Inverse folding.
């Protein structure tokens, strides 16, 4: 049991290549516990957030990506991709998931970041 | 090391500049502020309500000590700067405190001008400028009975009203025959005098002060004509003088104020100046709105962006006396080249005058009912041609049939705190007022950011502006003269469009570089706008940027609240066949569409389609002969028609065929906002053509064309463009109108507000009078259609943009 728990937290899943995600865009990783949006910024930063706006649950993956932010398509909330936190004066947070790029491949962990306030 | 910025003056202008600077370059400077008053930064325009007792000092504090500390600003309260050593770049305060600068900002404000009459230095003779003056007035009101206010201008009357409220007997001595002669004409000034007299203020008009008398304290005022007034307190409000002694002593060139350029720089480029102490293009200002515009420009240059210019302010005035409504702006007196439209109802206490020159508003003065003041002011600043509004102009915006708000000001004032203002976001009056006072909000944009009110459909904008005006007092200015496209830039929509054409900017990065965008890749506001502007400017050359489109346009369907999509196929002119309906029914069943709805534009809407299914469904629709209905886009939507003379006994022309032809010509075109059309076969107008962006009403002699209608949040009936004889001409005029709209309207501006902004006369000139110009417009529209009329659904059914419709991966 112990080992299983351990592997779960450190498990990285290959989800595709960097080129699969459009620049200034996002793709969705579908899972039972709720979709995860994987974003790629203009400077090729890759970020993963729960695909739910903290406001009314809008799909962040469908928003416009600008700088290191995404604007939710439902009511224009802006969410910071680095932290998952809504840009002031709005208040709220989308859970962040660890993601890394190696050799052009994108790896995602399905366990939200410890420091993420809204797991 | 950070550069050092020293600010002399802890008032509204100086600190507003610092706030603007912190917004755009928070880490650039180490900032030091000197203020001669031993107080935090407060809202000077709200001193009048403090005097009347309607507000307390704490209510008008803008930035407390914690704000300065939080931004690492060194604040020297109660230290008056007495010298500037420009050679060694430092300032010296009275107590010996010194501060070195790389850039210096002078915001020393102004002082009340004291008449040079005998007795002016007696105790009890004061100006009306700062909190000390207000405290002196309040103290006098507690102890004495008689007050004389010298000066019947804006400030003098506010002081008189405040002293009256505090229980004093007040007499106003004013040199000219009319009150507020710089803001009001004779009828308005007389109405104002009458209602102030009814409250108990006495007037000496014209009254020339000869002498102020008294032994140890003021005891009276003697006028030139020999009259003598008892006075325990004399308030001088005859004007203000910019504080320029410090600048003068430092060798900076001054006339009436510190001379500044359009970049707010004095003759020493390291020294900037803003607010009431400056003279710009020969003018000095004593109101708050211009100073905010100056602060923005100054901050822009201090941040080394170097793209903003201050070109002077057009100002309007309101009196902050509760229960008295007056408004004035611009040239309200008129001259031999102007015309006046006037409305006077002495019984109801209402007077309105609008001064026009070549059908453009030059100025306005209003008394009693000032609700439309901001509207006239906007029309004046925009230089809108009002010829089509003339007959209704004085009755106000509420009578244009487009606003539906009625008497905004009274409505807002009488609303309970729990009344919902913004229906889209559920924001109540109390929430907005609280945000304005607690968070010190000054502008519509700030209220939008903090409360979300008026940030969705915008129909409550007028109400929110009225709330801002009533909460902040009279100096609230509706909006800057030039509105930047978005916070990423200082440039307005028109400037950006002009630059795109003039400098042949053909990609978005080219625009960002040439116009010095502040962000690397824009934002959700400017990117869609720029994408559209580039598309219109360079048809066939510019590659549409999908990532800069709102989701609906990116995936060619309407996102619904649950993340599913809706699909609306085009049904030309709203006419269909049993075979078409049969195939639509089969497709709906095949994809198990949860809801099928008939839209207001005579189309069939499939709701609740999962994103992954869209391309397959479009493939089937395509096979059945359907193309995208663009119900999701800022694009040509629908052409609604009636059956016309083919069937209807009243029909005068074949409205259905004309509708279909219009739709076949126009479909696929991207427009600044959605664009709807209709063709009615007779004046009974069953297709509701007079609330469309472009509507045709058939008559026996031909076709009447109407533009700028809207049936949405604000119902607006169309304006009549012109009548033509043949359907071919309708197509031609429609294409020309569409192209002017595409080339010149701001992104996300519907035709209704656009027509009001540019004026119907202008559009008639472009589309009707100028035949060669119309042909050129039609040519450009046809050219752009060659690249636009490609069915996006068919392309995607064949595999285009595949990644948009499938998940990257399925896990767990």
């Amino acid at each position: 049991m112990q080992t299983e728990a351990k592997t779960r937290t450190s498990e990285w899943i290959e989800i595709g290549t960097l080129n699969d995600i459009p620049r200034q865009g996002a793709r969705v990783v579908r899972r039972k516990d709720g979709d995860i949006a994987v974003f790629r910024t203009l400077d090729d930063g890759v970020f993963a957030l729960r695909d739910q706006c903290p406001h009314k649950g809008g799909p962040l993956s469908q928003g416009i990506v600008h700088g290191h932010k995404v604007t939710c398509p439902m009511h224009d909330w802006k969410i910071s991709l680095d932290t998952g936190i809504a840009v002031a004066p709005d208040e709220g947070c989308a859970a962040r998931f660890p993601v890394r790029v190696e050799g052009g491949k994108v790896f995602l962990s399905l366990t939200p970041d410890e420091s993420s306030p809204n797991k | 090391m950070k550069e050092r910025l020293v600010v002399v003056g802890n008032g509204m202008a100086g600190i507003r500049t610092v706030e603007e600077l912190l917004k755009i370059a928070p880490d650039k400077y180490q900032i030091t502020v000197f203020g001669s008053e031993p107080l935090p930064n407060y809202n000077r325009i709200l001193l009048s309500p403090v005097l009347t007792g309607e507000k307390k000092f704490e209510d008008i504090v803008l930035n407390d000590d914690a704000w300065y500390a939080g931004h690492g600003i060194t604040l020297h309260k109660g230290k008056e700067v007495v010298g500037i050593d420009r050679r060694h770049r430092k300032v010296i305060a009275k107590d010996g405190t010194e501060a070195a600068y790389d850039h210096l900002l002078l915001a020393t404000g102004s002082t009340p001008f004291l008449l040079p009459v005998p007795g002016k230095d007696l105790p009890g003779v004061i100006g009306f400028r700062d909190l000390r003056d207000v405290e002196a007035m309040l103290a006098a009101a507690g102890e004495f009975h008689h007050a004389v206010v010298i000066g019947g201008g804006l400030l003098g009357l506010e002081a008189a009203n405040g002293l009256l409220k505090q229980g004093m007997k007040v007499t106003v001595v004013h040199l000219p025959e009319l009150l507020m002669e710089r803001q009001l004409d004779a009828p308005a000034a007389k109405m104002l005098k009458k209602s102030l007299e009814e409250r108990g203020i006495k007037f000496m008009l014209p009254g020339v002060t000869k002498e102020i008398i008294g032994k140890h304290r003021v005891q009276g005022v003697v006028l030139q004509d020999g009259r003598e007034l008892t006075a325990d307190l004399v308030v001088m409000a005859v004007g203000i003088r910019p504080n320029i002694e410090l600048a003068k002593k430092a060798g900076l060139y001054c006339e009436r104020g510190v001379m500044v350029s359009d970049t707010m720089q004095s003759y020493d480029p390291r020294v900037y100046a803003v607010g009431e102490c400056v003279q710009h293009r020969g003018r000095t200002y004593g109101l708050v709105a211009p100073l905010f515009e100056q602060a923005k420009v100054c901050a822009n240059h201090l941040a080394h962006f170097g793209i903003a210019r201050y070109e002077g302010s057009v100002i309007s005035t309101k009196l902050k006396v509760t229960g008295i409504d007056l408004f004035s702006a611009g040239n309200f007196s008129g001259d031999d080249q102007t015309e006046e439209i006037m409305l006077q109802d002495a019984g109801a206490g209402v007077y309105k005058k609008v001064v026009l020159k070549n059908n453009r508003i030059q100025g306005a003065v209003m008394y009693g009912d000032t609700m439309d003041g901001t509207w006239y002011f906007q029309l004046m600043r925009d230089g809108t041609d009002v010829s089509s509004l003339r007959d209704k102009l004085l009755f106000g915006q509420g009578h244009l049939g487009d606003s539906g708000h009625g008497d905004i000001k009274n409505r807002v004032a009488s609303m309970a705190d729990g009344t919902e203002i913004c229906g889209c976001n559920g924001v109540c009056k109390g929430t907005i007022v609280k945000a304005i006072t607690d968070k010190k909000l000054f502008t519509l944009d700030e209220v939008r950011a903090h409360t979300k009110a008026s940030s969705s459909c915008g129909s409550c904008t007028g109400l929110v502006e009225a709330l801002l005006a009533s909460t902040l007092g009279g100096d609230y200015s509706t909006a800057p003269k030039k509105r930047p496209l978005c916070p990423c830039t200082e440039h307005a929509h028109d400037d950006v469009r002009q630059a795109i054409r003039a400098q042949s900017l053909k990609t978005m990065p080219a625009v960002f570089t040439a116009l010095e965008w502040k962000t690397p890749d824009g934002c959700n506001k400017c990117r869609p706008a720029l994408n559209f502007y580039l598309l219109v400017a360079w048809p066939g050359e510019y590659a549409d940027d999908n990532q800069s489109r709102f989701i609906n346009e990116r995936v060619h369907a309407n996102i619904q609240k649950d993340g599913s999509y809706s699909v609306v196929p085009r049904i030309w002119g709203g006419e269909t066949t049993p075979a078409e309906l049969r195939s639509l029914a089969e497709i709906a069943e095949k994809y198990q569409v949860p809801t099928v709805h008939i839209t207001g534009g005579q189309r069939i809407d499939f709701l609740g389609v999962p994103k992954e299914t869209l391309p397959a469904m479009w493939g089937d629709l395509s096979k059945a002969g359907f193309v995208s209905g663009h119900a999701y886009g800022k694009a040509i939507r629908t052409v609604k028609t009636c059956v016309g003379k083919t069937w209807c006994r009243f029909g005068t022309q074949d409205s259905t065929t004309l509708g279909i032809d219009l739709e076949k010509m126009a479909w696929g075109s991207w427009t600044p906002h959605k664009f709807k059309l209709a063709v009615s076969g007779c004046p009974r107008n069953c297709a509701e053509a007079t609330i469309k962006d472009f509507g045709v009403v058939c008559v026996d002699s031909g076709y009447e064309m109407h533009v700028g209608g809207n049936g949405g949040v604000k119902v607006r009936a169309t304006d009549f463009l012109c009548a033509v004889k043949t359907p071919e001409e309708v197509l031609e005029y429609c294409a020309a109108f569409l192209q002017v709209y595409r080339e010149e309207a701001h992104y996300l501006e519907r035709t209704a507000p656009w027509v009001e902004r540019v004026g119907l006369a202008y559009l008639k000139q472009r589309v009707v009078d100028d035949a060669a110009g119309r042909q050129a417009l039609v040519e450009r529209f046809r050219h752009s259609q060659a690249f636009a009329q490609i069915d996006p659904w068919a392309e995607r059914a064949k595999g285009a943009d595949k990644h948009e419709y499938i998940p990257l991966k399925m896990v767990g």
Q: What stands out?
A: Chain A touches chain B at residues 13, 15-16, 20-25, 27-33, 35, 38, 42-43, 58-59, 62-67, 69, 71, 73-76, 78, 89, 110 (CB under 8 Å).
